[in-house]
Amino acid sequence: MLGIVLAFLAGIQTPQDTATVDAPVYDIGAYGVSLPRPFDDWVFEPGVGPEATTVIFHPRGESLREQLWGALLLTSFRGEVPLRRIVEQRLETTWRPRLGRSFVLGEDDTLTIAGLPAMHTVVSGAIDHVALDVEEYTIARGGDLIVLQLRYPRGLPRDSIAAGYERVVAGLRIRGGGVSRPAATSLPVENVATARDMPDTPWQVTAYDALVRYDAPDARADFVVRMNLSNDGLLPEDSVAVWVWPALTMDSVRGDSLLAGVRASAGVWWVRLPAAAAPQDSTTLTIYYHGSGADPAVPSRLMRLAATGAFAAIDWLPRVQPALDSALQLVRASRPRLTLSFDVPDEWRALAPGRLTSDGASLGRRHMTWRSDQVTATVPAFALGPYRVVTRPEAGVAVSVWLTPADSPSTATIDSLAAGVRTAWVFCSRAFGRLPTSEVDVAATDVPRAQGFAGLLLLGHPASFGGIRDDTVVADAGLPSLGDLAHELARTWWGNSAAAAGPGSAWIVEAIPAWTALAIRGVEEGDSVRQRLVRDADSVWHSVARGRDLPLSRLPAWGPDVELLGAKGVAALEAARRAQGEALFRETLLTLAVEHRNSWITLDDVLTALGPGPAALLRSYFF
């Protein structure tokens, strides 16, 4: 199926062997799609094949070799359309070879057309010695793929052509707009690892109330999560799609105190409500599930359970909205408050982002409650273990270090760790604005690398828990450097306080913290050190790319390209800093962080704040 899409239109040079249709609008009834022509003297030439339908529109009597034409492709997949993969493969296997050395990628954005996820790309080059720009809108409607292509020969006045093409885009009608929803009895999910293939439903979570009970003998954690939901759609809703990480085992679901009808499929559960919820109405669901350390399917990234050690759970809350759009970019979602209670053995402790509101023990069990404060963590996380807590009240911030019996750091090591946290916290507070909290928790866990959340750092712990290592020394597993601490602590501002969404969102949550780590090293060790680190990042960018230097807007915050995202992202920020000037650049970052606190930030917000000159330079790294 992808082969049909990849070959679509790039090599078409002559009209298809069908009669032309001279009409103001062409309707493709089988797909429920209609398309107006851009000008009165243009005609349609439809072509129907076994796998796809194509409609070319061009001036009457003109040859397609002049490259003045547009086209529409419609085809269907067995499952959900892999929108991002289609666009990437078309760029790499169709347009780059077709345009050769003249190939230039102008734009690569995500957007919504007729309520459907879509991508907009613009490529430039020459075909048969005709220089042109090619604009494509790639749209997914459930399992249907719709591609609209518009060609602009540069030898003709662009404005006159654009006026007609704008009528085409504005007049495109796709019936069944809005993401199609499967029946409650079947919800296929192709890639459950990121929950990106969930249906886009009108439900929003307004609050979570969760209880986590851990029993050490069985190395088992039981979760009870009560979700307050609001129907933000225009129609009554009688069911909810709920995603829970597939490595966790769903036990049951209750809605409004009544057992709901449930059907499971690869991590997504379709829950039938006792009664339909009208638009703007609220309802509640209570989800029961568990995870066990004896289950080899539980990945260490999500949870590491052991009878005697500490473990961490990341991204463990149920979702009713996809975390990613069809182009694998972070999406806006509600930012609900979270009240998280723990029931653990008496000698154990639990910690999470937010504020500890209660802590008590009775009958051999300890009960602790954490509540999300003024800064909400966009990715939920917590840690459990037989912890003891050591507090260091550094100037401007209180640092609590959570250690297990296996960790035996010296007093000097703890002091070094707390001082490193304070250095990073003070810098970020001055650079990005003070937050309504002055506490940072640092926990030794089984995570393979340091990870930061809202005021919470999860670190690894080797046999002897270490303090801050020198970045010039080969790192031992779990030992954080000042750069590690700064990078992960900066996520309190970038990715949590100011969450990111849309094209380029991965750059915001990865590259800005990486740049922050270099800036802190420069303040502490001198600007020559910072310049060296920037050159190192630039060198990493070019070495990692190896002829595959993708635009920043297309890189997700995971997988094999995450190193390229960080290194090239730092280079992009440095280019913007030099173009805007140090003082204005620092003021821009501060303004962005403060204005988007507890809200969402997009690449467009950053470009607007930088101004035309620096923004144009930064765009060259993205598209």
Number of strands: 31
So what's the oligomer here? single chain
* Main sheet summary: 8 strands, mixed
Class from secondary-structure proportions = alpha+beta
Shape: globular
Instruction: Report the CATH C-level class of the largest domain.
Output: Alpha Beta
Spans of at least 5 consecutive residues with low confidence: 11-17, 177-196, 294-307, 463-479
Radius of gyration: 27 Å
Strand order, biggest sheet?
15-14-18-12-11-20-23-22
Helix content: 25-40%
CATH superfamily of the largest domain: Mog1/PsbP, alpha/beta/alpha sandwich
Number of domains: 3
Provide the residue-averaged pLDDT: 80
CATH topology of the largest domain: Protein Transport Mog1p, Chain A
N- to C-terminal separation?
Answer: 27 Å
CATH architecture annotation name of the largest domain: 3-Layer(aba) Sandwich
Query: Helix count?
Result: 11
- Content of β-strand: 25-35%
What does this 3D model show about the protein?
The protein is an alpha+beta fold and 623 residues long. The protein has 3 domains: 2-174, Mog1/PsbP, alpha/beta/alpha sandwich (Protein Transport Mog1p, Chain A, 3-Layer(aba) Sandwich), CATH 3.40.1000; 183-323, Sandwich (Immunoglobulin-like); 498-622, Neutral Protease, domain 2. The chain has 11 helices and 31 strands. Strands 15-14-18-12-11-20-23-22 form an 8-stranded mixed β-sheet, with no helix packed on it. Helix 4 (411-432) crosses helix 5. The longest helix is centred in the last third of the chain and has 22 residues, at 411-432. The protein is globular. The two termini are 27 Å apart. Residues 11-17, 177-196, 294-307 and 463-479 have low confidence and may be disordered.
